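Expect chain and fold; thus:
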Amino acid sequence: MRKLIGIASAVTALVVSLAACGSAGTAAAPTGEGKDSAAEVLKVGASPVPHAQILKFVKDKLAAKEGLNLEIVEFTDYVQPNVQLNDGQLGANFFQHKPYLDDFNASKGTKLTFVQPVHLEPLGLYSKKITEAGALPSGATVAVPNDATNLGRALKLLADNGLVTLKEGVGTTATERDVAANPKGLKFQPLEAAQLPRSLEDVDAAVINGNYAIEAGLKPAENALVLEKAEGNPYVNGLVVAAGHEQDPRVVKLAKLLAGPEVKQFIEQTYKGAVIPAA
């Protein structure tokens, strides 16, 4: 009986030891250091156009040679990709520029980090009622993004093209209260960025983010009444992770691929000026 008890105890110890080894292997998988290809999966949240399209190009054409397995999760808003990244449901996201990220971190208390610039989507003014910005009638309604950074960006675009004048030094934080002069008496209608293309039926003009313009079938280089200039533009979109995960091997691999010549060429050939590579 004592021998049987001894054998049982030894078997139990062996099982516990093996289980502990298995647990360590599973825990190591998220770092991307394991040999199992499943350990290399990186779940990335992205806007459908052009971000998810760019990631799909990377996944289909470039990722395998780096031992990287991407899972792309599409979002149609600018809030959930950051919420889910902060909660650990995503390993990274790709949809935003740094001014938006900085404002989100400040207002929501998140700790997310911009790790790799990829491209610029020029913001543009669009209309189905006029063919040039100067033809906006007095009292015209202009739809603008309702998030803080893109609202300031939209107002700057209007100011750069002589439609309004902003108070000195307001920069990207401008709101309607910072409009110092409004010769045409324009009325601003803040809307969620994704709703702006649909608003063109109801307003005189709308300032639309590049990704949503493209998704709606608009061609920024051809259809925009006025368009942001790329030179010196702070609104470059890029790869974002939770603070502390910048050196995750999967993130490092993806950042390298997104900054590479193949992605630059894909952007230039696919979007023809509607999306501009960061470098």
Remarks:
- The first strand starts at residue 41 and ends at 46.
- The longest helix spans residues 2-28.
- Confidence is low (pLDDT under 50) at residues 1-38.
- The chain is about 40% helix and 20% strand.
